[in-house]
Amino acid sequence: MHLIQQLDQTLFQLINGHWHNAVADAVLPLFREKTFWIPAYLIFAIWLVWKYRLQALWILLALVATVALSDTISHRLIKQSVKRERPCRNPDLQVRQLAYCGGGYSFTSNHAANHFALAMFILGLWGARARFWRWLLPLWAASIAYAQVYVGVHYPLDVLAGSLLGMLIGYPIGKWTRRRLRFDLTETA
């Protein structure tokens, strides 16, 4: 376990301390801000309502429930059990802190869990029809997860575990939603 933590801290220091540039310093702190993505979420919700009418409400309810489940498991169950301090609170690390450190624990990353749950829900819902989104959504969620490490508030293992948690929750619920509610997803998403 000590070796894993040491590797995690070493990778953290590479991402946070060495692999940086002015563009990433400006952009990645924004990626992790909840309000930054609100326009994209609104556009998606409006598109759903325009495209699927009443069915969109069920999709949105299932999506909100998916993210709420991901957030609750990450924050209430895992973080409260593991109680790992954030790297920005570790006096033994040199941290380039580009965002507010946060008051909670580090493992698992809620940002990573929630955004991967959202991305994978959409992929599970549309399945093979989501040709373009199949690559874009995981890259989007991964960029948000990476930003957590880059700005100094999470270790790489935190975001990896959060990402896996989100995938394990989001994709099956998306598939279940598609089958159970029999959405008419005849056109490509």
Task: From the structure above, extract its key features.
globular, 189 residues, 70% helix, 7 helices, mainly alpha
Could you walk me through the main structural features you see in this protein, from its secondary elements to its overall organization?
The protein has 189 residues and is mainly alpha-helical. The chain has one domain (8-91, 107-181). Helices cover 70% and strands 0% of the residues. It has helices at 2-18, 22-31, 38-52, 54-82, 110-126, 133-150, 156-181. Helix 5 (110-126) packs antiparallel against helix 6 (133-150). The chain is globular and about 55 Å long. 37% of the residues are buried. The mean pLDDT is 90.
Strand and helix map with partners:
Elements: H1 2-18, H2 22-31, H3 38-52, H4 54-82, H5 110-126, H6 133-150, H7 156-181
Helix pairs in contact: 2-6, 3-4, 4-5, 4-7, 5-6, 5-7, 6-7
